[in-house]
Specification:
It is a single chain. Helix content is 38%, strand content 18%. By secondary structure, the chain is an alpha/beta fold. The strands form 2 sheets. Strands 6-7-8-9-11-10 form a 6-stranded mixed sheet, sandwiched between helices. The longest helix has 17 residues. The protein is globular and about 60 Å long.
């Protein structure tokens, strides 16, 4: 599965690694991890990471993106990670590269690159990158192991989600053969200051329910301005406030931004991915996202999720 990608990496002197916009721990972890793997095994190569700011995950070592000229792509290999659709890729210059490749674990939406390694059996793209390194006999190092392990934690919900498998633990064990500080990862990922705890309490009070017990939160642009919190914290960060409510199998967090309404869909029972795809998004069977143009469309999505529980 990985041989064609390995040969491409060997062939090109310059490798530029992309991932999706507004990176989560898996997108950033796979990007940083793959960069470290390539540099560890092919130190003579020029390896760059590009995209928008690391945001919430800027605590990760090496997370500042490289600034490179357009000409750098002329004879380069561009690798896109953790991305199911073209419009989600951060920095669309990947398409100008001499060769392109993709590694992804999301449900397939469209072909993006010349070489495609897409496997939904992995809980995270970081898991896929780890398997690539191990199966190709590439050396791991502490920096890549820490980045990849961080992404595995976030995309598996600390190994709680049902995407977690025996394969997940085998790969995590291989990463832990390298020396890095687990406590350092968990402290930075999950330690909340009082302001964050207070914000979470505010969002618990905002939870509403449909007639079919789909839980949802809707935050307007005006409310966002009053909260003074960043978009990631409100959208991706607060969806989990609904995750452990008894009797709730689907929950969704709507957040208004200048770019549209961000929709974070989650379920413990149903495949909500087709709903996300219907509205221009994508992701996994039980964790997907989309951006829609208005509250009216967001409420149509909510109605579709409601109807799903009746099927």
């Amino acid at each position: 599965m990985f041989q064609e990608l390995l040969e491409k990496i060997k062939k090109y002197q310059t490798v530029i690694i992309h991932r999706h916009k507004n990176p989560d721990g898996d997108a950033l972890g796979s990007q940083l991890g793959l960069k470290c793997i390539i540099k560890e095994n092919f130190p003579e190569k020029n390896v760059y990471i590009v995209g928008d700011s690391a945001g919430h995950y800027s605590f990760m070592d090496g997370s500042v993106m490289d600034e490179i000229a357009d000409e750098t792509y002329a004879d380069a290999l561009a690798i896109v990670l953790d991305t199911s659709a073209k419009h989600l890729i951060s920095d669309d210059r990947y398409a100008t590269a001499k060769a392109t490749a993709r590694m992804d674990h999301h449900i397939f939406v469209e072909k993006i690159c010349d070489t495609e390694v897409v496997d939904t059996s992995f809980e995270s793209c970081c898991g896929l990158v780890t398997a690539f390194a191990l199966q190709c006999g590439l050396r791991l190092c502490p920096c890549c192991a820490k980045a990849l392990y961080t992404g595995m934690i976030t995309d598996s919900g600390r190994f709680r989600y049902d995407s977690t498998s025996a394969q997940t633990f085998r790969l995590a064990a291989a990463l832990m053969e390298q020396k890095f500080d687990l406590n350092d990862i968990y402290r930075k990922l999950y330690a909340d200051d009082f302001a964050k705890l207070r914000l979470r309490a505010q969002f618990v009070l905002k939870i509403r329910f449909t007639d079919c017990n789909v839980a949802y939160i809707y935050t307007t642009k005006e409310e966002m301005a009053e909260l003074g919190a960043d978009t990631f914290t409100v959208s991706r960060g607060m969806v989990s406030t609904m995750s452990d409510i008894k009797g709730v199998d689907i929950w969704v967090n709507f957040t208004e931004t200048e770019q549209g309404v961000l929709c974070e869909l989650r379920s413990s029972k149903y495949n909500i991915n087709p709903i996300a795809v219907k509205y221009g998004g994508g992701g996994h069977a039980k964790a997907s996202g989309a951006t829609v143009a208005s509250k009216e469309i967001a409420m149509q999505m909510l109605s579709d999720l409601d109807a799903m529980t009746k099927e």
